Amino acid sequence: MESSSPTPLFDQVDNPADLKRIPREQLPQLCAELRKVILDTVSITGGHLGSGMGVVELTVALHYLFDFKQDRLVWDVGHQCYPHKLLTERKARFHTLRQKGGLSGFSNKWESPYDAYLMGHAGTAASAALGIAMGDRMQGRQRYSVAVVGDAAMGCGVAFEALNHGGSLEKERLLVILNDNRWSIAKTVGALSRHLNKLRSGAFYHKAKDAVHHLIQSIPVVGSTLDEKLGDAVDMVKNMVAPGHIFEALGFRYFGPVDGHDMGEMLQALEQVKDLDGVVLLHVRTEKGKGVPGSEDRYDRAHAAKPQPAKKKAEKVPVEPCVLQPVVPMHKPGRSWTEWFGEGIQLLAEKDPRVLAITAAMPDGTGLMEFRDKFPDRFVDAGIAEQHAVAMASGLATSGMRPVCAIYSSFLQRGYDQVFQEVILQRLPVLFAMDRGGLVGEDGATHNGIYDLAFLRCLPGIVLMSPKDGPELHEMMQFALQLPGPSGIRYARGNAPGAHELLGWHGRHQPLQLGRMEILREGNDGAVLAYGHMVQIALEAAALLDKQGIHIEVVNARFCKPLDEQGVLSLCDRHDRVVTLEDHCKAGGFGSAVLECLAAHGPVRAQVQVMAVPDEILEHMSRAQILDYCGLTAQHVAARFLAEKHSPAGR
Fold it and tell me: What's the domain range around 562?
């Protein structure tokens, strides 16, 4: 009797051992079922979709021939590992993807013994896998080390550093699989991409080499001996087919390209290279978003999917007993911070021909798609190479341009040395637009942008700002272009308030001045000094406290560097309690800057408390959940002042 399940083969597979029992001729059907499960699930949970759909056959073939509970498999970035998760004892929990307490959206060494790393950034897999291979050899351990690297990630400087090093080694056994789909989030850029295009068009590359070998070996009596002695001649013929082959010039043994969606070809290729000594590169052609309806018409090849609204009732977040639930519903504006930025940079470029935008393979994620189309000559995609993007921006600024580097906060960490050497030391007017500044939620620890203030605030000469709403972001961008040196603006993931949309604030806008804060509402029972988008939380807390007869002052800090020291001292002399509020790590952030000011110029009247992200690695969960976990909700802020009111000391 035939099964009525839409995924009869996949239903039989809970782990790689189950997979190995399936006949080879049925593996294409299993791949189709895997794609259905991924598409159906990610359409609900949200997450990276296109990359995983493109490596289904590759993943199945790898697990069919290797044992990655013992062998090591390193996924570059990690967002392409969804089929890997489904085959490695996690399919029952796959519906919890990117949810609090559920599966990570990336590979995660603490989630499964099949995962070698918690990996969320591009370009480092070859280095990590090479290190594993070297360590195994040194310890006499026999196992395979495999890195799956996308063609866009292969353009990272660190990836080339790994290839350069690995190609010089003879004792290590490492297989690097080049997942060539011609996309990162956007189209892959650069000379390497053009080189791979040539290789794709020359599918007979290794077939020519094999044909020459076969011809020589067919010579009676002396064929085999002659073949061994004419190895260099064979390589000459091969290089005539693909002259100047970059990978073999680096010392790799190159094989491919092979069709990454032909299961038979994938298994055959992996079997051929599996037991070769040294560093081997297998070039696999895949299609990002394969199986996603309409993906071929999308600019990002179905890179990611947004979650559907939950059908069940939202889980109630527990609050402190002394804090009332909000009496005014939280405002839900319709435009994201990224959209406000995209509009702002277009307005600047229309007025100033020196303005140009730079992104590191994130034109859509940073809101630059319309800018790219409108100002193609002033748009630069550097590929997944933040170091290069920042250094290039310094050169453009040196030439008189006003470059805006739109890079996620967590990704700017990758270009930190260039920020200092090429921008800070040169005192150049480069604007760093740091999207996703703060807690990002479902993407988790690898993407939380909670360290930018700490690693930038210590650099001399940089101006650091953060807006309370969309219009202030536009104002700060205009202000930054008037500065003679470097600056950074951080803003959050998610939606931003528009003009007059901040809850509880109906005051008059105060013009932006360098290093000056803005008082939004007055009160005599304490104050909250909030940085950036946390101003909204502070205003919501003030509305809660109003109902309790407690009236607090709310201040928009605007600048972290230079800090409004006189404003801070005055605020702390007006109140008994002042709370600083930020969506950043506690160590080295905005609150730290305030405490440093007080240490240098105090004493003051107020007891000052810092509310910020705790010093720990945070797991993935929704943004609302992670703010609650970190104690950064309006209820938590209000609780600080309610506890003061009800304390035995009466303070």
Answer: 518-646
Nearest to 106 by CA among 91, 125, 120, 85: 120
**Pair (155, 278) in one structural domain:** yes
| Residues 236 and 351 placed together within one structural domain of the fold | no
CA 614 to chain centre: 21
Residues 441-451: tens digit of each pLDDT: 888 788 899 99
Same domain, 280 and 215: no
Amino acid at site 361: A
Helix, strand, coil percent content, the chain, rounded in steps of 5: 40, 15, 45
Separation of alpha carbons 265 and 262, rounded Å: 5
- Rg over CA atoms, the chain: 28
Q: At 307, is the secondary structure helix, strand, or coil?
A: coil
Query: Cα–Cα distance between 247 and 163 in angstroms, integer?
Result: 8
Say yes or no to pLDDT of 635 above 80: yes
Active site residues: 288, 386, 414
If asked whether residues 198 and 211 sit together in one domain, one would say no
- By C-alpha distance, which of 463, 494, 453 is closest to 582? 453
User: Which residue in 442, 392, 385 sits closest to 412, CA to CA?
Assistant: 385
Dump pLDDT digits (tens) for 527-574. Answer: 999 999 999 999 999 999 999 999 999 999 999 999 999 999 999 999
Q: Could you tell me the sign of the dihedral formed by the alpha carbons of 359, 361, 363, 366, in that order? A: negative
How many domains, in total, are found in the chain?
4
Reported as half-sphere exposure (CB side, CA atoms, 13 A), residue 235 has a value of: 11
Give the closest residue to 620 by CA, choosing from 77, 121, 48, 104: 104
136 domain-assigned:
yes
The predicted model scores a pTM of 0.73
